Amino acid sequence: MHYLIKSEPDVYSFDDLLRDGETTWDGIKNPQALIYLRNMKKGETCVLYHSNTGKAAVGTATVVSVKLDPPVPPSTMTTPIVRLKAGKRLKREKSLAEMREAKVFKDSLLFRQFRLSVVPLTPEQFAWLLEA
Predict the structure, then answer these.
(1) Which class for 89: exposed (0-12), middle (13-18), buried (19 or more C-beta within 10 A)?
(2) Which terminus of the chain has fewer Cβ atoms in its 10 Å neighbourhood, N or C?
(3) DSSP-derived 3-state class of residue 83
């Protein structure tokens, strides 16, 4: 599965991820977003979206690991520790306005639950974001 992960670029940008090479994706409080983080699997690819400033999908990251802290059964609400490795900058950023107009995003949670900081992507949405 693929995910769109949001970050405010003045807090942590794609350039910061490129500089660091790898980071722990934290600061998520929304219960639904935490479920999506817990469901991530090693090797999955995410698209990093700059929220508030820029409002565009800008680059990719790969899930390195997902651990629960503390390790408990999946039915228990815990905070996942997700490590992400920097991927590549998109050949062309895709703005929020472009995504809103794209048919592929018609029924996306991105526009139904806009405040979610982690949103699952369909294979078609992921491919659309990566195309130049």
Answers:
(1) middle
(2) C
(3) strand
Q: 57 with 49: CB under 8 angstroms?
A: yes
Short-list 128, 110, 111, 127, CA closest to 119: 110
How far apart CA 15 and CA 59 sit, in angstroms, is: 9
Tell me which residue has tokens 């995410």. Answer: 46
Take residue 115 and report the two structure tokens written for it.
Answer: 């405040």
113-116-118 Cα angle (round to 5): 125
Question: Is the dihedral angle over the CA atoms 124, 12, 8, 34 positive or is it negative?
Answer: positive
Tens digits of per-residue pLDDT, 90-124? 999 999 999 999 999 998 878 877 778 999 999 99
Query: pTM of the full predicted structure?
Result: 0.89
